[in-house]
Amino acid sequence: MKRILVNGAGGFIGGHLVKRLKAEGCWVRGVDIKHHEFAVSHADEFIIGDLRDQRIMADVMKGIDEVYQLAADMGGAGFVFTGEHDADIMYNSATINLNTLHFGVKAGVQKFFYSSSACIYPEYNQTDPLNPECSEDSAYPAAPDSEYGWEKLFSERLYLTYMRNYKVRVRIARFHNIFGPEGTWTGGREKAPAALCRKVASAEDGGEIEIWGDGRQTRSFLYIDECLEGVRRLMESDFTGPVNIGSDEMVTINQLAQMIMRIAGKAIAIKPVPGPLGVRGRNSDNRLIAEELGWKPSCPLYEGLEKTYQWIQEQVAISQSPQLTTVSLVA
Predict the structure, then answer these.
(1) pTM
(2) Which tens digits make up the pLDDT trace of 81-110?
(3) How far apart are CA 187 and CA 195, in angstroms?
(4) CA distance linking residue 299 with residue 223, whole number of Å
(5) E-assigned strand segments in the chain
(6) Which of 12, 38, 274, 306 has the most crowded CB, counting CB atoms within 10 A?
(7) Taking the CB of residue 96, how many other CB atoms lie within 10 A of it?
(8) DSSP-assigned states of every residue in 193-219
């Protein structure tokens, strides 16, 4: 039985990945600084620990065959693009990656998966919302739009140097806006699909919601099950990457909001307001993953949004429940 470590198992993608690996018959150790907020972990062993701590990292690597490194200090545009968290983002994530490789190699781990990000792509290639350039070979000359992107790019190179110098196997994926149920949906770190689902679920029919900017900025969004399928195919392949794992179904943020309104059965006005935006346009270029892995995502955005909206609508209803409020006050 393959023994696997998932760093960041208390997060959105990590929690879903643990379930997937267990369904495939693996033994899984999960580690995170917190328990999962919205689900009970399926891990055989779940360790609460700070992956910046070398003692913790040395301990969790024992007896492990493969590591999936998903842990990072991250969030949506409201967290990444304000500039207020840049030092923490770079220090925390870089330290986790340095520890993962150093102590993984010392413990004899043979294979590592690293979750990079589309944020590594140059800002100068993403100024046209209708024609962004995000092919894997366009990453250089480097000019990410955030310190988050710079750290991800540094860590890609870190994993590749360990592969060359220590002869471990490495797989690198650049994620493009992964979404779905059981993810952060409020509090400032949520990404656009979750934020808009929350706003629409909370709004009255005929009301309005706020969107940062003019809403014409473009993105693509990949449903969580598709993400995991791409990750597992990459890990079982002979291809190192980096490779995009994302959808190429590009939409404007306004179109994303309108899809969610249609799912909710509500007519809601959009009010543009100032806010952090990131690049003007971004879309996953899926030519390389199709060529190397013979695979492409198949779940339409609308279908994934239906499942996500239903789950977030339930969370909103729970949070607004008078009974929940009373219990909280008593506690």
Answers:
(1) 0.93
(2) 788 899 999 999 999 999 999 999 999 999
(3) 10
(4) 7
(5) 3-7, 27-32, 45-48, 66-69, 111-117, 169-175, 178-179, 208-212, 218-219, 222-223, 243-245, 251-252, 269-273
(6) 12
(7) 23
(8) HHHHHHHHHHSPTT-EEEEETTS--EE
* pLDDT tens column, 25-62: 999 999 999 999 999 999 999 999 999 999 999 999 99
* Band (322; pLDDT cuts 50, 70, 90): low
Q: Please, are residues 120 and 173 in contact by the beta-carbon 8 Å criterion?
A: no
75, 34, 31, 73: which is closest to 51 by C-alpha? 31
At 313, list the tokens. 């609508």
List the chain domain ranges. 3-179+224-245
Q: Identify the residue whose tokens are 């509090």.
A: 187
Read off the pLDDT of residues 232-254 as tens digits, 9 standing for 90 and up.
Answer: 999 999 999 999 999 999 999 99
Burial of 271 (0-12, 13-18, 19+ CB in 10 A): exposed
148 is catalytic: yes
For residue 264, the tally of other CB atoms under 10 A from its CB is 17
Q: Which residues contact 271 (CB under 8 A, 6 or more apart)?
A: 208, 209, 210, 211
How distant, in Å, are the alpha carbons of 83, 241, 242 from that of 157? 24, 11, 10
Name residues whose C-beta falls within 8 Å of residue 46's C-beta, 6 or more positions apart in sequence. Answer: 9, 10, 29, 30, 31, 32, 35
Q: List Cβ neighbours of 247 (8 Å cut-off, separation of 6 or more).
A: 176, 220, 221, 222, 223, 226, 284, 297, 301
- Is it true that domain 3-179+224-245 has CATH number 1.10.10.10? no
**Residue of 148, 159, 223, 309 marked catalytic:** 148
